[in-house]
Design goal:
The complex is a heterotrimer of chains A (about 200), B (about 220) and C (about 290). Chain A is mostly helical. Chain A has nine helices and no strands. Chain C has about 290 residues and is mainly alpha-helical. The interface between A and C is medium-sized, with 34 and 31 residues.
Chain lengths: ~200, ~220, ~290
């Protein structure tokens, strides 16, 4: 977890080199950088999330007990979600310091990070269950996951940057609605399909 | 005695890639009997047990366990079976007791009695050590405790004697007899025939995915 | 031979589609005769679209993946239709009022878009049917339709870029439809990669079905999110493809690409099913007579 945080922070630092030391531009892009950093870090945590289950095939052992695959999925997905949420909240001060992108609406920011990471972890947990069993999982997971979570990423970036840069037109609500809808769809759909993925 | 065999296997076949691990086998087992599945390494013993325990799907043929189809009624089959697999199914970072507790909670069973189970398999003193510090034989014992926790009607034991010390052999024999006395059906894959034979009601020999001796013809 | 009925029915449906979609308009515009059987335009369009879709669906579903003959015939017909469409699009139809000749790319662009989405819809349906029925044919069809859909999506992105450069001055305009297509392209390329990485046919089929369902459900969400995201840009007006002179090239190409697409899916599914046959062949020798 600590290593992933350092990775995310390093990514945030590197992103700023892509723009150059222009404070105004960096502030403008801060939300996008935060979410890209979070997205890159998430592939690390998601890919590792089935490590304990795959070691002695504990997942198969649980399924044979029998236990409900949906319960296994939601347990795993919630764990991944909380992990990413904490990671996102932990990376926020780094963003604030590096990009001068502070805000007083802390609660709203934490909530947006929560909704956004929920969108990452629902399909992420499902795909990680597949790629954990496959050679070259490090390539495959982002390949499957990144295109899929475009809407969640867009909405999170927009909502975050509206919080950081100000929201004169009150647009944030529609982005939050989109995030909630994305989360609702994928948290239910992936739960339904997970059983098919882990069953052999 | 029983009109319906608890295990009924017809033309069962399963492949790994291009190789057929099971190439069409037929047999039946009576409820409460001990059936020893013998054969060399790679003869298909583990595959047979894994198919019957619904860990993997059959590619062809049907198998009924307790009247339930292993391909279609997996949930029902799983409720009445327990598999001692080559894989330990254990979480390395959890202790012996915690591993059992995870299983107990998934089974909806209570937490009490776990310690006596651990003592039953002589792991009492190590109950709170993480599994990663365990030897292969100790893991096997812990997996055995997990099987007993499930209290199944059909038990599949894949090489139960493997990696155990002589004391462990005695333990397995005791447990098998105990289960049998309760009316549990036991399917045991082993190449230690001299040990299994004393317990067996029936023996089937597998060779290259086919039954060469034993079983009941269909 | 009862197996022939589906082909007869679907061929008849496709003929009906071409009659109402193309022939009636052609005769009306160039021969000034009315063969519409008294049906209004809306009804004719509806009949053409529905019978085209149903005919194509029957072709796909009834194909036993054994012989390439039907697929070859479809592709042949499709190529002829596309030649007609190209001829009309390049030489017969007048240049568009505002955009001139650049506009002509719409005669392929729009039909490619329709059919690309249709191919991925076919993949989605195949995925659902496979998960419920477990019939390998649907796995083969899904693989085929994803591949064809990916090719069409790629063509769509290229055509979009070609159109955007002279029209907007940039290769990529972040238009919601085009961006959605690009996202889709990567999503389904990922699924094809997944299929390459998994050796076990059962896992491969189930996992790619699951991934296909998830990716397909994402299509509308991606579309709306990109649309809102890009709402500062003025939304592009729909290129004018509905007025009469544009009908024939547009529709001929739409049917042409549809036929070629269905034919390609059938051929590709046949290849996939041949490969599957070796992967899931029964055990050799005394299978079924053990003991």
């Amino acid at each position: 977890m600590m290593a992933v945080f350092v990775f995310g922070a390093a990514a945030l630092l590197l992103f700023s080199f892509a723009v150059g030391p222009v404070a105004e531009l960096l502030r403008q892009f801060s939300a996008g950088f935060l979410w890209l950093g979070l997205l890159l870090s998430s592939t690390l945590t998601l890919a590792e999330s089935y490590h304990a289950e795959m070691e002695n095939r504990a997942l198969e052992g649980l399924l044979l007990l029998p236990s409900d695959p949906r319960a296994l999925y939601y347990g795993k997905a919630i764990a991944n979600w909380l992990q990413l949420w904490i990671l996102g909240v932990a990376l926020t001060p780094v963003m604030v310091i590096l990009y001068d992108a502070g805000t007083t609406r802390i609660f709203a920011l934490v909530a947006v990070i929560g909704l956004g990471t929920a969108g990452l972890s629902a399909p992420g947990t499902l795909y990680a269950a597949m790629t954990a069993q496959v050679r070259s999982k490090q390539t495959l997971l982002p390949l499957l996951l990144f295109p899929l979570i475009v809407p969640a990423l867009l909405a999170s970036v927009k909502a975050t940057s509206l919080i950081v840069l100000g929201d004169p037109m009150g647009e944030i609500k529609s982005w939050l609605t989109l995030l909630v809808a994305f989360d609702a769809i994928y948290w239910s759909l992936c739960g339904l399909l997970f059983g098919r993925v882990v069953e052999e | 005695m029983a009109a319906h065999p608890i295990i009924k296997v017809e033309n069962l076949a399963r492949r790994y890639g291009r190789r057929w691990a099971l190439a069409g086998i037929n047999f039946e087992a009576r409820e409460g009997s001990v059936v020893v599945v013998a054969g060399r390494n790679g003869a298909g013993k583990s595959t047979l047990l894994r198919v019957l325990a619904t860990a993997i799907r059959p590619d062809r043929g049907t198998a009924l366990v307790g009247g339930f189809n292993v391909a279609r009624e997996r949930e029902d089959v799983r409720k009445i079976t327990a598999l001692l697999s080559h894989y330990s199914y254990l979480y390395e970072s959890l202790t012996a007791r915690e591993n059992l507790r995870v299983a107990a909670e998934h089974l909806g069973a209570g937490r009490n009695g776990l310690m006596s189970l651990l003592e039953r398999v002589n792991l009492g003193p190590r109950a709170d050590d993480p599994v990663s510090t365990f030897s292969a034989g100790m893991r096997k014992r812990l997996s055995f405790a997990r099987i007993l926790l499930q209290d199944p009607r059909v038990v599949m034991l894949d090489e139960p004697y493997g990696q155990l010390d002589p004391e462990g052999f005695v333990l397995v024999d005791e447990v098998v007899k105990e289960l049998k006395a309760k009316g549990t059906t036991i399917l045991m894959a082993t190449h230690q025939l001299e040990r299994g034979a004393s317990l067996a009601d029936d023996t089937i020999h597998l060779e290259a995915g086919r039954i060469v001796h034993g079983g009941s013809p269909c | 031979m009862p197996r022939r009925y589906p082909y007869v029915i679907s061929s008849a449906l496709l003929a009906v589609a071409i009659y109402f979609g193309l022939a009636v308009t052609y005769v009306d515009q160039y021969l000034h005769a009315d063969i519409s059987l008294g049906l209004p335009v809306a009804a004719r369009t509806l009949i053409a679209v529905l019978s085209g879709l149903i005919g194509a669906a029957i072709y796909l579903a009834a194909d036993d993946l054994k012989s390439p003959r039907c697929a070859n015939r479809l592709i042949f017909t499709g190529v002829i239709l596309m030649l007609i469409g190209t001829w009309f699009g390049l030489f017969v139809a007048p240049p568009e009022e505002f955009m001139g000749d650049v506009q002509r790319i719409m005669y392929v662009h729009v039909p490619t878009a329709w059919n690309g989405l249709l191919a991925l819809t076919v993949a989605f349906v195949c995925a659902i049917v496979f998960l419920f029925k477990g019939d390998w044919k649907w796995d083969a069809r899904m693989e085929a339709s994803i591949e064809v859909g990916v090719v069409l999506a790629f063509l769509l992105c290229v055509q979009g870029a070609i159109w955007a450069k002279p029209t907007w001055g940039v290769w990529w305009d972040w238009d919601p439809r085009l961006t959605t297509t690009a996202v889709l392209l990567f999503a389904f390329l990922g699924i094809l990669a997944l299929r390459k990485f998994v050796d076990d046919p059962m896992k491969r089929a189930i996992w790619s079905s699951v991934a296909t369902i998830i990716a397909y459900v994402d299509v509308p969400i991606v579309y709306f999110s990109v649309r809102w995201w890009n709402s500062l840009h003025q939304l592009q007006s729909n290129p004018n493809t509905v007025s009469k002179p544009f009908w024939i090239p547009l529709r001929a190409n739409a049917f042409g690409i549809l036929f070629v697409m269905v034919g390609f899916i059938m051929l590709r599914a046949r290849i996939a099913s041949l490969r599957l046959e070796t992967e899931i062949a029964p055990p050799p020798l005394e299978f079924g007579e053990a003991v």
